[in-house]
Amino acid sequence: MSSQPNSDWERKLQDLETEIHQTTPINNTNIPEEAHNAVYRIQLWFDSLPPVGRLAVALVAMTIAFSILSTIFKVITSLLSVAVVGIVLYLGYKFFMTPRHD
Fold first, then answer.
1. 84-94: string of b/e by CB count within 10 Å (b at 16+)?
2. pLDDT tens-digit series, residues 14-65
3. Residue 54: which of 62, 38, 69, 65 has the closest Cα?
4. How many helices (H) and strands (E) in the chain?
5. How far is the C-alpha of 27 from the C-alpha of 35, rounded, in Å?
6. Phi and psi for 25 in degrees, rounded to 5?
7. Which is nearest to 46 in space by CA: 58, 59, 29, 62?
8. What is the number of other CB atoms lying within 10 angstroms of the CB of residue 36?
């Protein structure tokens, strides 16, 4: 009698193990498969580099990232400067050019 419950547990355990080890891709995002493959290829390429190469790639990537970030900040600063100058000019026009009714 005791062999029956043990075999049930063993069968359930095997079912759970096969369910865990099934390789079903979990795709919760809408990223195309080609993008996943490209990222995977880049990751493989980066992993195959020697440590000095990884450092060089990281430094180049950081330089590019900081350059892009700097450009974005410069554009935002320019837009804010144009906005401030525009407000000052508008207020000056309103103050000096509108006729006063005394």
1. eeeeeeeeeee
2. 887 887 777 555 555 566 677 778 888 888 999 999 999 999 999 999 999 9
3. 62
4. 3, 0
5. 12
6. -70, 135
7. 58
8. 13
